[in-house]
Structure formats: structure tokens, C-alpha cells
From TrEMBL:
Keywords: Hydrolase, Magnesium, Metal-binding, Nuclease, Toxin-antitoxin system. The keyword Nuclease applies. It holds the Pfam family PIN. PANTHER family: RIBONUCLEASE VAPC3. One of its GO terms (molecular function) is metal ion binding. It comes from the Bacteria. Transmembrane segments: none annotated. This is Twitching motility protein PilT. Residues 4-124 form the PIN domain. InterPro entries: PIN-like_dom_sf, PIN_dom, PINc/VapC_TA_RNase. The keyword Magnesium applies.
């Protein structure tokens, strides 16, 4: 695997960092950053930035996220995401368009997915995903 695509929920928990679970996630994310393993796509960047109505907080986060260039999302990734969505739905598994886009990009680029979203455990049963397992 050539990197770890970090889902919005992990970033959000790491930014909070108040509970022991959030602190553990923040430490793991920091380790991945130190190892230059962290990947992001535009849809995740958008979700993160959409959570800030305060302009100063938005600008600070936007500046910090610039450290992580967005992994390109190809037209074929959108098509694969649609295929994954259709296939999973045929198996009784629902998911968001963004989740399936994350899956498609990760499979193509051979990234692991770091998420706390339990939906990905269901996707993993039907798709060729690799989920990042915390230490």
C-alpha cells in the first residue's frame, strides 16, 4: 500500500482530541503524517472545511490542509464509485456517494482507508478495500 486515505470522521475526531479515544486517533494520525502516509481527496477536504462557519477557524484549517495535496480523482473513479454503489446496494448495503468515491480512489491508488465509519466494514465485505487498522 502506498498511503492511507484519511476519512473526514478521523480528521474531525483528531481535531477535537478531548477524549482518550480522540487523543489516540490524533496520535495515530500524527504518526501517519510524520511517516508521510496521509492522503486526502477534494471531497474530504470540502467536508472538513464545510464544518467551519467562523472565517478565522476556516482559514486556519484551510492553511493546515494545504500541506496535504489532493489525490487526483479521475473520471473512471466516479464510474467505479457508481459500480461499487450499485453492487453493494444489490447486496443490501447502502452508502453515500462520497463513501464509494473514497473506496474507488483507494482501490485504484492502492491506499488503505483510515475511518471510524462502520459503514466501511460493510463495504469491505463486498469490495476489494484495505482498511487501515490502528495499532
Amino acid at each position: 500500500m502506498s498511503g492511507v486515505l484519511v476519512d473526514t470522521c478521523v480528521w474531525s475526531l483528531a481535531f477535537r482530541g478531548t477524549s482518550s479515544r480522540e487523543t489516540t486517533i490524533a496520535e495515530q494520525l500524527t504518526q501517519l503524517i510524520d511517516e508521510n502516509q496521509v492522503k486526502i481527496i477534494g471531497a474530504i477536504r470540502q467536508e472538513l472545511l464545510s464544518g467551519y462557519t467562523d472565517k478565522n477557524s476556516y482559514d486556519k484549517l484551510r492553511q493546515k490542509l494545504k500541506y496535504f495535496p489532493s489525490e487526483p480523482v479521475l473520471d473512471s473513479d466516479y464510474e467505479t464509485a457508481a459500480e461499487y454503489s450499485n453492487f453493494c446496494r444489490s447486496k443490501g448495503v447502502q452508502g453515500s456517494h462520497t463513501d464509494f468515491l473514497i473506496c474507488a480512489v483507494s482501490v485504484r491508488a492502492k491506499f488503505k482507508i483510515y475511518t471510524t465509519d462502520k459503514d466501511f466494514n460493510h463495504y469491505e465485505k463486498h469490495l476489494p478495500l484495505a482498511l487501515f487498522k490502528k495499532n
